[in-house]
């Protein structure tokens, strides 16, 4: 009975260790996915910052053109329209940049959370492996004792 109980406990420990390993793999895959998503968002941020700089440069150029070309009213109106359009584009890009930055922060928090979960699962796995090793030692000790007892009975 003790031997069967020890076997059952060892099987349970093995099953928990396998489950923990699969959870670790899943979390590692998810972490890798999140890292890729962070990289994508970083690239978007870089592109948005470049677009923002380019838009600011265009605005500066248009303002310089506007100052130099105050001769014609139609040209002035067109420049104002373009300036308004560029300012709207700039606001849109800034809004996109803020949204992307917020997404990045969220992903970083999720990544930290996944790292903590992974660490906890790895600690649990190590604990289960230690329990399995202890159970195996107890099993071997019990088996030796049982073999010894059976040998003693046979000798009688």
Automatic annotation (TrEMBL):
Organism in which the protein naturally occurs: Piromyces finnis
Residue numbers spanned by region Disordered: 1-26
Keyword hit for Coiled coil: yes
Extent of Basic and acidic residues compositional bias: 9-26
Protein keywords: Coiled coil
Origin: domain of life: Eukaryota
Entry protein name: Tropomyosin
Keyword Acetylation belongs to the record: no
Entry-linked InterPro entries: Tropomyosin
Listed SUPFAM superfamilies: Tropomyosin (SSF57997)
